[in-house]
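Appendix B. Chain record.
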Amino acid sequence: CSQCGLGYCFSASNNLKGSIPIEIGLLTSLKEILLSFNGLRGSIPETLGMLVNLRRFIVDENNLSGSIPHSIVNLVDLEMIQIPGSDLSGSIPPTIFNLPKLLSINLERNNLSGTLPDFTGNQVNILSIRLSTNQLNGTLPWSLGNLVQTQLLTLDNNQFTGSIPPSITNLTQVIAIVMNDNQITGNIPTDIGKMRSIRSVSTFNNNMTGTIPSSLFKLTDIYSLNIGNNQLSGTIPTELGLLTKLQILDLSNNNFSGSIPDEIENITTFFLLSLLQNQLTGVIPKSLAHSSNLRVLDLSSNRLIGNVPLEFKMLGDLQILNVYNNDLTGEVNILCPLTENNLDSIGADCGGISPEVFCQCCNFCCDREDFCSFV
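Structure tokens predicted for this chain:
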């Protein structure tokens, strides 16, 4: 290490090469190791477990390989483990989560495998668990519900199966849960409304079924709800209008039916609204124009009727609008002036000899046979 002493070893972004030497175990006074954004290779030596005073081990974005040394469980003062963006493999030592002072663990973007441990020990202090983009598998343990102080839980881009255990609603301090891109089945937990601190939920691209539970609409501080690309069904509840802080709502690629509820007019904070590839009917609510910050609006591949609301010409920040593969009529030309500002892409049923929608500025058109092309 080029800058080690007085209990600290800092050498981030210094283009360090080679491996972490086994002799690092001799530096028993070390309290912090920061070796992020270098070119370190090889395995993390077992001698790391000799650093009994170590509080932080931070080695982001290197090329480390091999497994996490089991000796790491000897570091009883360790508060932070941060090794994202390497090539670590093998399983996560299950007792690593029992370290009595551990507050944060980040092992994202490695090749770790195996299952999650049972959280039945001393994990009450852990605030952040980040395990996304690995090859972790198996079911989510019921004992996840014991992580009562956890504020951030990211398990996305793994191979988890089975349903989300109902006990997860015990995580009343959690701010964000990310579980997208797994093989999770089952329903959204019925009592999700107990998680009053939550701001962001993502279960995108799983195999979840059932309807949106009514308790979800107790989460009045939530700003991002991404449950698209599942097999959810039923109508979009009118209680959606209670979520007045929503900025991102993605219900795409599900089996939702019925109309877009009028109560959506209560939400004026949308940045992204994606309802594509469902079975929605009725008209497009003109009240969506009240979301002056709306950037992306995708209502394509439904059964919507009527016109694109004239009020949409007020959406000066709109960048993408997709309404193709519906039963809309009339013109979209009212939005053409927006293409001189931020509107980059408009998709509508404007193709073929006899288009259903007239649009001179659309760059993606579908015809009556649902043949679509860029223009």
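Further analysis of this model is presented in Appendix C.
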